Amino acid sequence: MLIPALLLLISEIIISKLDETTLKKISLETGGKYYHATAGEIELDKIFAEISKMEKKELEGTQVTRYDDRFQIPMFFVLILLLIEFFMSERKLIPVSVKDAI
User: Fold this and answer.
1) Where are the domains positioned within the chain?
2) Is 72 helix (H, G, I), strand (E, B) or coil?
3) Please, what is the end-to-end C-alpha distance for the chain in angstroms?
4) Residue 46: which of 63, 33, 57 has the closest Cα?
5) How far is the C-alpha of 102 from the C-alpha of 98, rounded, in Å?
6) What are phi and psi of 25, to 5 degrees?
7) Using the 8-state DSSP alphabet, how is residue 52 labeled?
8) Contact (Cβ atoms closer than 8 angstroms) between residue 34 and residue 22
9) 42/35 Cα distance (integer angstroms)
10) Residues 11 and 22 sit within 8 Å (Cβ to Cβ)
11) Predicted confidence band at 24 (pLDDT cuts at 50, 70, 90)?
12) What is the C-alpha to C-alpha distance for residues 16 and 18, in angstroms, rounded to an integer?
């Protein structure tokens, strides 16, 4: 493939250094804390301890009830039935005289 071959030709090794002093200044100015992470994961325990010390509070929230209109499907069937009823012929009653009934 052409693209991986181009990447191999263009790729360079980039070396970056951790600037802890700048990170510490940023954390102090913003009211945060800086922890240097190591392989022992001791810093994670410190972070969890800090989080557990924080004030626990319940956030305000509002509950909104949203109703969905679902009358369209039954209304469709009712309209079909009304159309069928409209086009159906009515039975014609034959008038029966009183003399024939006796």
Assistant:
1) 73-101
2) helix
3) 104
4) 33
5) 7
6) -65, -45
7) H
8) no
9) 10
10) no
11) very high
12) 7
